[in-house]
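Lecture notes, part 5. Sequence design as translation. It can be helpful to think of inverse folding as translation between two languages: the language of shapes and the language of residues. The source text, in C-alpha cells, appears below.
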C-alpha cells in the first residue's frame, strides 16, 4: 500500500475514533494527515469509501497476524489458537475507540458493500473456529464442531467489543481457551444430540464445504500450501514421504487437460486420512475442482 494512502487511512481512523464518522470532515482528516485535500480523492471516491477501506485494512492486518501464527508448526493446535486469540485481541484493543464508533453509528453498516464484507468476515471467522476446534479436540468433537464454533464466536465477539471496559489480552485469551475446553469437553462427555448439523450450518461457512469459485490457479496454490505444511509437519518420515508422493501425483493430475477423477479422489482420500485439519479446506476445494472439470 502506498505510503500516502496508508497515511490517509491512519488519519481517518484517528479522526473517526475521536469524533465519530458523521462528525468528521474530509478537511479534518487531511489536516491530521498533513496532506492536501485533493490527495484523498486520488485514492478514495468518498468518505464512505475511505471508511470501508479503513475497516478492511485493519481486518486484513489482524488476519495476517492470525494466519502467520497458523503456519508456525512448532506450536500445538491449542497453542496456535491461543496465540491467534492473543494477536486478535491486541489489535482489537488497540482500535477500541474506532470499533466503538462503528457500533454506535449503526447506519454505517447498511450499504451493500459493507454488508457483503461483514458477512464474509463472519463466515471466515466461523470457518477458523471450526478448523481450530477440530485440530485441538480431534474426531470426538466432529459432531459438535458447529455448535461449539457458534458459541465461542459469540462469546469472543461480545467480550472484545464491550464499550468502555478495559480488558487485558493475556487474561482474556486464557479465559477463552478455558471456556472452549469446558464447552467442547462437556459436549463430548454428555453425548447429546447437536443442535446444528451440516446442512443447517451452510450459511456459516461449513468448514467441509468447498469453494465453488475455486480456479486452476487456486488449485496450484493449494497444492503448494499443502506441500509446505506436510514438509514442515512432525509426521513420521515414512508417512511424510508417502504423503508427498500422493501430493505429487495429485499435482500432476490437476495440470493435465483431462483430470482422472478416480486417481484424484484416491490421492485426496489418502491425504485426508492424515487427519490434519489445517489442510482439510484445501483438500475439499481440490476435490471439488477436480470432479467438476
Amino acid at each position: 500500500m502506498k505510503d500516502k494512502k496508508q497515511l490517509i487511512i491512519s488519519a481517518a481512523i484517528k479522526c473517526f475514533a475521536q469524533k465519530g464518522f458523521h462528525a468528521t470532515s474530509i478537511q479534518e482528516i487531511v489536516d491530521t494527515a498533513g496532506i492536501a485535500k485533493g490527495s484523498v480523492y486520488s485514492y478514495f471516491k468518498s468518505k464512505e469509501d475511505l471508511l470501508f477501506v479503513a475497516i478492511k485494512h485493519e481486518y486484513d492486518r489482524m488476519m495476517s497476524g492470525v494466519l502467520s501464527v497458523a503456519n508456525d508448526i512448532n506450536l500445538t493446535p491449542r497453542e496456535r489458537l491461543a496465540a491467534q486469540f492473543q494477536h486478535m485481541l491486541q489489535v482489537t484493543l488497540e482500535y477500541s475507540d474506532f470499533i466503538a464508533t462503528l457500533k454506535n453509528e449503526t447506519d454505517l453498516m447498511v450499504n451493500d458493500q459493507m454488508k457483503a464484507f461483514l458477512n464474509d468476515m463472519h463466515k471466515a471467522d466461523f470457518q477458523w473456529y471450526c478448523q481450530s476446534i477440530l485440530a485441538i479436540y480431534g474426531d470426538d468433537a466432529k459432531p459438535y464442531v458447529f455448535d461449539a464454533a457458534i458459541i465461542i464466536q459469540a462469546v469472543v465477539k461480545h467480550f472484545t467489543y464491550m464499550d468502555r471496559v478495559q480488558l487485558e489480552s493475556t487474561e482474556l485469551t486464557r479465559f477463552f481457551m478455558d471456556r472452549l475446553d469446558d464447552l467442547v469437553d462437556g459436549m463430548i462427555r454428555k453425548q447429546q444430540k447437536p443442535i446444528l448439523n451440516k446442512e443447517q450450518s451452510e450459511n456459516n461457512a461449513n468448514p467441509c464445504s468447498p469453494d465453488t469459485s475455486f480456479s486452476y490457479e487456486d488449485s496450484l496454490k493449494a497444492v503448494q500450501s499443502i506441500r509446505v505444511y506436510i514438509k514442515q509437519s512432525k509426521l513420521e518420515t515414512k508417512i511424510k514421504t508417502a504423503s508427498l508422493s500422493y501430493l505429487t501425483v495429485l499435482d500432476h493430475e490437476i495440470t493435465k487437460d483431462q483430470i482422472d477423477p478416480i486417481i484424484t479422489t484416491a490421492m485426496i482420500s489418502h491425504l485426508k486420512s492424515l487427519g490434519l485439519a489445517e489442510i482439510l479446506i484445501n483438500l475439499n476445494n481440490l476435490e471439488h475442482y477436480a470432479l467438476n472439470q
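The translated text above is only one of many valid answers, since several sequences can fold into similar shapes. Residues 112-137 form the longest helix (26 residues).
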